[in-house]
Design a protein that fits this description.
Length: about 260
């Protein structure tokens, strides 16, 4: 579905992505793991055409997203639901109004239909009857689920998740992880999930891509990752402080964001 080829992205002198290549299959869950500051969010932004890379291509249905003019990006983005890392909901709008937003903006559906759709989306994320609450009246995990309901508003075939479980308690994390699995298995939605959460990835992903030092360190099924003989991959999977990925090897490493976590 997506073929990412040799993506390079620099911010000033810093090379954040240095030749990233992988592919993501339709109707599958692809997890992209990596250290903090390693360019995961940047990669997602490149894949939705918000950030343009310095080199490389993102092929979707045979077209290169990175070179697409803005007017073609609009219909492309409509196919993709996006769950952002931060600031998901608009605080002065109710839950229902937040979910209605993309439908009011991008469709001509009448208000009765939008009302029904809101109920359906809330049902999907397990928050029936929450329409009239304000975001501030919800827990962090519930807010994340409302944001997911909004990402589902236009019935996307693909959803991009940027750290969907970060900052949640263990139950909140498993609720979201299970929702991702359900959306994929029950509705056939392709999920691209950027995350630190190795255990969740191993449990949920069809395919895992590990980013390290601006490149793909390894990719494969959870099983393949677990059995990888590469000590770097093993350290990633086990989250061990001891291994080839130094916690603080030198100031040079520090500058280049080789720190874990
Ligand atoms: N617009 C920008 N201008 C300059 N530098 C940027 C910009 N966006 C990101 N960066 C830098 O690029 C690097 C990668 O950022 P990015 O947000 O993609 O990392 P990440 O892997 O998503 O991190 P985290 O896991 O903490 O969310 C960081 O060092 C960041 O400071
Ligand atoms: Mg990020």
């Amino acid at each position: 579905m997506f073929t990412i080829r040799d993506i390079v992205k620099k911010y000033g002198e810093r090379t954040v992505l240095n030749g990233v290549s992988f592919s993501a299959e339709e109707r599958k869950i692809t997890y992209i793991l990596g250290t903090s500051g390693g360019g995961k969010s940047t990669l997602l932004k490149i894949m939705i055409g918000v950030v343009r890379p310095d080199a490389g291509e993102v092929l979707f249905e045979g077209k290169d997203i990175t070179k697409m003019p803005e007017r073609e990006l609009d219909p492309y983005r409509k196919k993709i639901g996006m769950l952002f890392q931060q600031g998901a909901l608009i605080n002065h709008l109710t839950v229902a109004e937040n979910i209605a937003l993309p439908m009011r903006e991008h469709t001509a559906l009448d208000e009765n239909i939008i009302g029904i759709m809101i109920k359906m989306k809330l049902e999907l994320v397990g928050l029936r009857d929450f329409e009239d609450l304000m975001p501030s009246q919800l827990s962090g995990g519930m807010q994340r689920r409302v944001a997911l309901a909004r990402a589902l508003a236009l019935d996307p075939a693909i959803i991009f998740f940027d750290e969907p479980t970060s900052g949640l308690d263990p139950i909140g994390r498993s609720v979201i992880t299970k929702l991702i699995a359900d959306l994929n298995r029950l509705m056939g939605i392709s999920c691209i999930v950027v995350s630190h959460a190795v255990e969740e990835a191993l449990r949920t992903a069809d395919r895992i891509v590990i980013l390290y030092q601006g490149k793909v360190l390894a990719s494969g099924t959870p099983q393949e990752m677990r059995q990888s003989p590469d000590p770097l991959v093993q350290q990633f999977i086990t989250g061990s402080p001891d291994g080839p990925i130094a916690f603080r090897a030198s100031s040079k490493d520090f500058r280049e964001d080789l720190l874990v976590g």
